[in-house]
Write a structure and sequence with these properties.
Chain A has 197 residues and is of the alpha+beta class. Chain A contains five helices and eight strands; from the N terminus they run αααααββββββββ. In chain A, β2 and β3 form a beta hairpin. The N terminus of chain A is likely disordered. The chains are: A alpha+beta (197), B mainly alpha (195).
């Protein structure tokens, strides 16, 4: 029996390389590979052989596949970059949280970091706007209001975190209702102006 | 270890560029990813379509595979094999998972009877770039015994597990395992795979 137990894993190297094992068996064989240098060398050369079988049946995909893949990668990486930047700001050593009620209902919350020179804005309970309008963020300093980006439309009453870079010392953060697409200077009275903690 | 060079079926001039490209992709380099796409989309799509035999599903799975290449490029380890082998292993496993889980899987055995004995005309690569490789692979496949060849192609090109292959060919499990292994070894030597 011991002989069989020792021999059996190695005999599966052909099926393993061809992906002809069920998942559980494949996992077991991979644990065996980790302990067996000879098998690993053999597995590598036979995998390279299977790769040649794969390349031999190469076929040109339709051009739309490339467009779809590259677009998905773009979306994925900008979401990743945004998430990474948001995470960096939330964990900055000087990160401060400020929450203020708004005249549009609900609460606006800003996490700010002067070190990161940025804020993350979220809100809950602010009234939904028609498609022709948008909530716009502003950094408000001595020189007036500087556009800081648009707030994504609320889903389930709250808005997903949005990162705004360009925070300067002494800035307040304001929110106004603007025509869809936003403006370069506020055209309405802010629904909230936040003095940062 | 010997430099993996002169390997048949490699889509690039040598392995080094694709390896290097994957490193750049791991750093989030979009241009490098597009270059990886240009080198590997043909093999990835062709292999998946070979297994799934359905263009629409193959496009879907190819997209998943190529996005996984983007996401997990940092996990590619050159010490464990070539970049092309890494990408095609992901593609083959996804294709096999899909074909085994699809509702059509149950019908495959009955279809197999009709397919068996048909000429290997559909094994021919359609991409011009792959023609040379396809020719050499076909020549080397022809050099195997019938049982070796059928064991390998039923598993690799159709996604059957080795017990299914054994049942289809009506031979013992141990025989199929052995023919897959010695068939691949002979194929490797015929192709001159050096790594």
């Amino acid at each position: 029996m011991r002989f069989l137990r020792r021999r059996r894993p190695h005999a599966l190297i052909g099926p393993y390389v061809l992906d002809a094992l069920e998942t559980a068996e494949r996992d077991r064989f991979e644990r065996h590979l980790d302990r067996c240098r000879d098998c690993e060398t053999e597995a590598r050369s036979l995998t390279a052989t299977a790769t040649a079988l794969g390349i031999a049946v190469a076929a040109d995909p339709p051009p739309r596949l490339k467009r779809a893949v590259l677009a998905a990668v773009d979306a994925l990486s900008s979401a990743q970059a945004e998430n990474a930047a948001i995470a960096a700001l939330m964990t900055a050593s000087d990160a401060r949280t400020t929450s203020v009620a708004t005249s549009a209902g609900g609460t606006a919350t800003v996490v700010s970091s002067l070190r990161e020179a940025a804020i993350v804005f979220t809100s809950s309970g602010m009234r939904a706007l028609p498609a022709t309008e948008v909530y716009e963020l502003w950094f408000i300093g001595h020189g007036g209001a500087r556009p800081a980006g648009l707030v994504p439309p609320p889903g389930d009453g709250s808005t997903s975190p949005v990162l705004a870079a360009g925070l300067e010392p002494g800035d307040k953060v304001g929110v106004t209702v603007e025509p869809a697409g936003g403006t370069t200077a506020p055209t309405t009275t802010p629904v909230v102006v936040m003095t940062l903690a | 270890m010997a430099e993996p060079s002169g390997v048949p079926g490699n889509p690039a001039d040598s392995d080094t560029p694709l390896d290097a490209l994957l490193k750049q992709v791991a750093d989030g380099d979009h241009a490098a990813f597009e270059a990886v796409y240009d080198q590997m989309a043909g093999p990835v799509y062709g292999l998946i379509r070979k297994v799934l035999r359905d263009s629409a599903q193959s496009e879907e799975v190819a997209q998943e595979v190529l996005l996984e290449v983007w996401r997990s490029a940092s996990r590619f380890d050159p010490a464990r094999g070539s970049a092309a082998a890494w990408v095609l292993t992901i593609a083959h496993r996804r294709a096999v998972d899909r074909v085994r889980s699809s509702a059509a899987a149950a019908e495959r055995e009955s279809r197999f009877a009709a397919e068996r004995g048909a000429p290997a005309a559909d094994e021919v690569a359609e991409s011009v770039a792959a023609l040379l490789d396809a020719e050499q692979v076909r020549r080397c496949l022809d050099g195997l015994t019938k049982l070796q060849r059928e064991s390998i192609t039923l598993a690799y090109y159709r996604g059957y597990t080795y017990p299914q292959v054994a049942a289809l060919l009506q031979v013992a499990l141990g025989t199929v395992k052995a023919r897959m292994r010695d068939g691949l070894t002979r194929l490797r030597d015929c192709l001159g795979v050096t790594w």
